[in-house]
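Request: When convenient, would you put together a sequence paired with its structure tokens?
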Amino acid sequence: MAAALLSVVAAQAQLRDDKNIFNHLSLGLNIGTGGIGFEVGTVCTPYIGIRAGFEAIPSFTVSPKNIANIHVDLPADYQSLPADVKAEYPVQSDMNFDGKGRVTMKNGKLLFDIYPGKNCMFHFTLGMYAGTSHIGSLVASQVNYGDMANLDIVTKYNNDINDPSKYVYDNAPIDIKMKDGTQLYYDGNAVPAEIRVNPVKPYFGIGVGRTVPRKRVGVKGELGVMYWGTPRIYNGDNDITKCEEIREVTRVTDKIPVYPMLKITIFGRIF
């Protein structure tokens, strides 16, 4: 979008100089809650400016504690095992999880600055951000007890029920499910999850500064909100956002369908 805007402005600058339409171009660098990015800007009338560009939040690590508690209903086959066999597979019915993950966000943007007056510095901004829906990944690991975590023991048990040489051969498997019946996908002691939002995010903001500075260099400040919808949490292909076991997490995310945007942009006028 930025490259196309640059081409249009360059082609129209000479033809429309008398009407002050697409006859100026700026290039800016910005930093804020949306990340670090760049913008190409122009004016289509003295009252409307157009900006296109890209913003990205560099990836950073988070380590939330006690993010989930999963209860396992142990099958009758397991419950009827002799004590010495159960000691070989000491499965517990309750599991607590801590998490570790990475958060990032990358978006292209197309924004329109609307000025109430021809020489006004204050403006409203309407437009959209668009990028990948995946803004974070998380691996939840069960808090260990004894020599082996519960999920590892469950995996060992479920493997041994297929081995004729084992006492537990042909028993019913131990299923790890949420209370609503959603199957939990896990690998060893790790339960992977993704945080997803809407890929297209409408934007509204207010700011001070011209899209193309009157002098060679200008500064622009902006405050707005990007609507990204209610964040959703996926385990594999399963949407587990509403599952009771993680409600302490989603009780917070349910209340933030918008992302606050505060940024400062330094613009340079190219022509």
Summary: The CA atoms of residues 46 and 119 lie 8 Å apart.
